[in-house]
Amino acid sequence: MKIFHLSEPKHGWVEVTFGEPPDAFTFTVSDVPNDCLRDLAVATARLLRHSTDETVEFSLEPAFATCELHREADSVRVVVRHPAHADPAFDATFPLHAFARRVRFELLRIQPRYSVEDGWTQPFPEHEVANLA
After folding, report:
1. What are 72-84's pLDDT values in tens digits?
2. Which phi and psi (to 5°) does residue 108 adopt?
3. How many Å apart are CA 15 and CA 44, to the nearest integer?
4. Any idea what the Cα angle at residue 60 is, between residues 103 and 6, rounded to 5°?
5. Are 6 and 106 in contact (CB under 8 A)?
6. CA-CA distance, 51 to 39, in Å (whole number)?
7. In this structure, how many other beta carbons lie within 10 angstroms of the beta carbon of residue 91?
8. Where does the chain have alpha helices with state H?
9. Using CA atoms in the order 117, 119, 79, 2, what is the torsion angle rounded to 10 degrees?
């Protein structure tokens, strides 16, 4: 089961997919003004350390989508709210540790595309990704 997937970043944009078809939601996000991928790693690591609610903003330039992460025992409920949708665009529950491993895997997979003009221009969040192990 694919929980989370990132496309190859191009010129500061990346497609983020939660879930898998037919119950997947994909949207394209920017690396400015905030590094939402780093913020997702930070929020997920906090859940691993027993936080119960985290919110990450994904820049759509100029609007934002939000990803709410709610820890429920050993699971995480992921709720994505997108300005083009009245109701949540995505709402599903995953095993927390599997979600954290997948976020870590995807960030490490695209690491060569970090800090490059034609990729994800933000620096690679080494410390944040290490906290997902």
Report:
1. 999 999 999 999 9
2. -65, -35
3. 19
4. 25
5. yes
6. 14
7. 16
8. 36-48, 96-109, 126-130
9. -170
Is the CA virtual torsion 31, 94, 46, 104 positive or negative?
A: negative
Tokens of 63: 């609007």
Interval 22-41: pLDDT, tens: 999 999 999 999 999 999 99
Report which residue type is found at 17: T
Query: What's the confidence (pLDDT) of residue 133?
Result: 87
Q: Using alpha carbons, list the distances in angstroms from residue 7 to 3, 23, 71, 94, 120.
A: 14, 18, 26, 21, 11
What tokens were used for 71? 């820890």
Q: What is the pLDDT, as a whole number, of residue 112?
A: 97
Q: Residue 118: helix, strand or coil by DSSP?
A: coil
**Which of the 8 DSSP states describes residue 123?**
P
Rounded to an integer, what distance in angstroms lies between the CA atom of residue 119 and that of residue 10? 4
